[in-house]
Amino acid sequence: MAHVVTGEDFAPDTAALAAVIFGVTAFAVAQGLTYPLISLVLEHRNVSPSLIGLNAGCFAAGLAVATFAVTWLSRKVRGDRLIVAGLVGCAVSLSTFATFDTFWVWCIARFFLGFFVSLIFMLSEAWLNTACPDRLRGRVSGLYGAGMCGGFAAGPLVIPIFGTEQGFAFALLAVYVACVAFLTIILTRRARTLPEQAASGALFKFVRSAPMLICMVVAFAFADIAAISTMPVYFVRLGYSEAFAAISVTVLALPTALAQPLVGWLLDTTSRFGVAICSGLLAGLSFIAIPFLQSQAAILVMFGIMGAASFSLYTCALTILGERYAGDRLVAGSAAFALAYAVGSAAGSSSVGAVMDVYSPSAGPIAAGCVVLAFTAALVASVLRDRLRRRS
C-alpha cells in the first residue's frame, strides 16, 4: 500500500501532483464548456434566464450532495480510485447532454455532473496538499490553479467550431474526459501518497474553525459562476454574437491561468490574506466596470482582470488550507470548500440571472460586483478581528 511521506520538508510526489492537475484540468474543461454552452443553447431555445439559472443550480446541488457523501465513499473506496470514478461519471453525464434535448433531463444530467466533479474537486485538493511541502505550497497551488483555468479557457473554444445546436461538443468532451481517466489510472500507480479518508463530523467542525477560508471560497464561486454562466447571456442580450460570448469566457480564463503561478509566488513570499483581500477588491470593481465599457477589446481586458482576481481568492484559500491543516482535516477542508463553492455558485447563477430578469442586463454584473465587494469587506473585518484577538 502507498504511504504518506511525513515531515515539514520532503520531496514532492510528482506522480500524484500530475494526476491531480490532469484530473482537475479535465473537470475545468467540462465546466468551462458546459456553463456557457448550456446557457447559450437554452437562451437560443427561448428559455428564461431564471430557468437557465435553475439548470446551473442543479450543478451546484450535485456539488453540495457530494460533500455529504464523500465521508462514506472515501471509507469504501480509495481516494485515487474515487477520482477516476468521478472522471468516468463526468464522461457519462456529458454523453447525456449529447443524446437528449429535454430540459429536465439536462437538469438531472447537470446534477450528476456536479456530483462527480465535486468528488474530483475535493479529493484532488486534499491530495495536492498531502503531496507537496509547505515551502512549495503556494507555487504548487498556483500550478494547480493554472491547470484549472487553462481548462476553463480551452472548453469554450469548442463552441465556435461546433456551434450550439448539435451535440458534438458534448460528445467530444466526454471522450476527452474518458481519456484523462485512463491517464490518471497510470499515474496513480506511481504515486507515493494517497488522499486521506474523511473523518465523520469533521466537515462542520472545519466550517466553524475556518470561516475566513469559507468566505473566500464562497466569494470566488459567486464571481466565477456569475461570470461564466450569466455573462454570456448578458452579452447576447446586448446584441453581441454567440461567438463573442463564448470567447469572453476563454478570455476570462486564459489570463487567469497565466497569473496563478505569479499569485502562488506572492503567496509564498508575502501576506497570504493580504493577497486575498486585494484579489477580492479587484474582482468586485472589475464586475462593476463592465457595463460602462463600450469597446469589445476593453471588455475582454476587464474580463481577463476579473478572472485572474476572482480565481486568486481560491488559490489563496487552498494554500492557507494546506498551511494550517493536515491529515483527515484536509479532506474535511476540501469538502467544506466544495460545499462553499456549491453555495456560492448557486447564488451566483440564480441571483444574477434573476436581477437581469427583473431589472436589466446591465444590473447583473453591477449586482455581482457589489456582492463580491461585500464578501471582501467581511474578509477584511474578519482579519482585523483576528489580529485584535491575538494582540489582546
From TrEMBL:
UniProt keyword Transmembrane helix, yes or no: yes
Domain Major facilitator superfamily (MFS) profile: 11-389
Subcellular location: Membrane
UniProt GO MF annotations: transmembrane transporter activity
InterPro entries tied to this protein: MFS, MFS_dom, MFS_trans_sf, MFS_YcaD-like, Tet-R_TetA/multi-R_MdtG-like
Record-level GO cellular component terms: plasma membrane
Protein name in the entry: MFS-type transporter ycaD
